[in-house]
Amino acid sequence: MPLTFAAPDADALPLTLIEQDGLDAWLADQPDRVKTWVGASSFSGALGTSLVIPGEDGAPVAALVGYGSEATRARQRFPLAAVATQLPAGAYRIAAGLPADRAETEALGWLLAGYGFSRYRDQTPKVAGLVAPEGVDAARIEVLATAEALTRDLVNTPASDMGPSALEAAARALATDHGASIEVTTGTDLLEKNFPMIHAVGRAATDEPRLIDMRWGDEGPALTLVGKGVCFDTGGLNLKPGSSMGLMKKDMGGSANVLGLAHAIMALGLKLRLRVLIPAVENSVSGASFRPQDILTSRKGLSVEINNTDAEGRLVLADALALADEEKPDLIVSMATLTGAARVAVGPDLAAFFATEDRVADALGRSAGPSADPVWRLPYHAPYEEMIEPGIADLDNAPSGGFAGAITAALFLRRFVTNTSAYAHFDIFSYQLSAAPGRSKGGFGQGGRAILGALPDLLDL
What we know:
- The chain is an alpha/beta fold.
- It has 15 helices and 19 strands.
């Protein structure tokens, strides 16, 4: 179903948000029949609870929603979304109790509560309609919800239906929707056009590796998004154990996130020149697989010793980043489900990121809260540079020892961005392990809204 608000002129029931310690104060101004009705219920204002209030004829005339306490709300990204699937069908408008600085976040969460991945069976939740709260840009919030749904759909689709060619098709469909141009380099053409590491990682798969290159906009500052598109990661010849391979359909989460962000940028009509680069591959196993201790020469000319074929994401990103850097855009952002080390450092809920400039990091930090998209900066720690220098080649794709894995991966990628001063790299999980309000189990967007919110500061839009 489309993630949209109810029509403003809908015959909507008033919805009042009640904090856990505010019920008595609200009841003091209500007629006796309402006091009696609420008193006979278990409603207390606890977060995630609701109560429909009938009129004298028994028909619903209003509803109460528990908004908990500041402490309980802090534990949820979208606290109000919990009741979106509880209320009876119909349309509702928020009459009181919603802080102005929470209106956009709660409105977005309500829409996202309506997301369900239904490609293989209908999982669409039954969600009550909501009239956009006063002061909220309804069209913008609907764009953000659609962008998030696109990201989730792409991540949730298994590799049987989301290999490199299907990911290309999804990018082409998005380009068509927004009038963007797109070029794709596939198979051995990657070698001819000097993308050797993308080709090496993907050459063992039956679905050929490719580089997707989409452009949109002809005025304003230049933004290039680079997304890791490893549609399934077996680990290659360094084969993952089964327990680690179970979620590897999501290893193209970086590409899903940049496509979702690209949709938002184009749908909102931002005045910038957008480029999206996605190296789309499957890291598979066959006689053509690249091997441990192979040495690959990258597009940048840097040689890379392969010490683990399961550290393939940085290889395909490196060639794409080198291409991005050749144009010297105003900002490059890469997104990837890159390292388990980032998950150990910040867990699945935070988007770890690295930034070459403090102004970039500061803008992302300011945007994260209002965007309901938490991020956390990790450092480019220069003393660790020697950890990615194996001696036999310029770079090591998988330093031994296991320490600082997220940082060494980010340092590796930074070696391929030498002409562009403003570069941010996001190491994300892009998956919700268990359902929460507004956050269905499965594929999940991370970092995109924080980036979108930071663009006006970073690019003077």
